Amino acid sequence: MKRANTGATERKWITIALINLMIVAVLGVLLRTRILFPLPGINFGYWLYAHSHFAVGGWITLCLFTLMTYRLLPAAGSGKRIYPVLLTGVLISSVGMLLSFPFQGYALFSIIFSTLFMVCTWAFGWVFVRDLLKAGTERSVTLLAAGSLVSLALSCVGPFSLAYMMATHQRDTVFYHDAIYTYLHLQYNGFFALGVFSLFCHHLGPAGAEKVRYRFALALCASVLPTLFLSYLWHQPPVVIRVVAGAGSVLLLLVLARFAEMARSVKPELYGVNPFARRIGALALMAFALKTLAQLLTIFPAVGNAIFSNRPVIVMYLHLVMLGFVTLYLFAQLLYAGFFATAKVLAGLGMVVFIIALVFNEVLLVMQGLPGVFKVPAEIYLWGLWLAAMGLLVGAGMVALAAGRGIKVEYSFKSELNM
Q: What stretches pass through the bilayer (predicted)?
């Protein structure tokens, strides 16, 4: 088990990322309010672009890049000046997307900032992987981290394809939707999942179980591209695509088996982890298992067709991965690292509120997606989802405030030392 105190530079970037999470939650409330009431000047689609792009860039990418830099690399690597420059580039481009998408959708400035964001992530991936290979990190961690950044780079095929099809007026085509699914898959099941598990394998697990972690890393990385073809089954593709998708589903079974094996191997290590962090981490890993099972089930036509044509279920899945798996794991990681040591109660309460709101949100979306089973008036869902969005905002706001207090305490302490 590896544990290191949070450095000042790392703390600054994590705090910024948590503030960005709160902003994402603000946009979520705005979107849910827009569904309930007419808001003049608010284009729902444009603000949805801002919400989703800033969630990926300003929150998850910034937080994962920060943790991967300052947790996986030795001080000689993470201390390079290039990393703050690249993180600044990610932040500026994410804020640029946040400020441009609401007012013009996909147009000149939003495309400029989106392109800048991709360039910054490519540069980060190139620099980081080179430093990671020199660091002699455990092979499972190296494989997962490198695979994560390769998936991120490959996901850019989606936006470039979308830009071309929008320019040539092909928005209502099969390929347009496949480009969206390609981007989402490589982000959620590639970049996010592999990045999270690179941190997990680095911090937890006895030395004697290194082979167990490596087998899991191999299975998870190998599954990324074949399972992409599961996303194409919604339009009755050619046989070759169905065959590759079938191979991907077999790999997902292997991933679940290796995941269970790895979870058993780290169980003794978990007794040394803060109980609250352990519980949140367990919820995150449960969300990973659920999302993997959901992926696996799409190989069956009846299930796949029902999911791909059901917007509430798709939204539920995206929130399950982004909030249930990735965000909760990042919360657990920060608790484990002692990031909230100066504001434990506030951070803990915020996370509890966030989790309750998230569960409420997911349950409502499942119910909304199954109208034949749950006979509930549509207005109940709309107000319930608005309430869940408010809960996510309150929880994220409390966590961000706790992070800000940590920065303030650290600054005050340093000022006293310098007097």
A: 12-31, 46-70, 82-101, 107-129, 141-166, 186-204, 216-234, 240-259, 280-308, 314-332, 339-360, 380-404
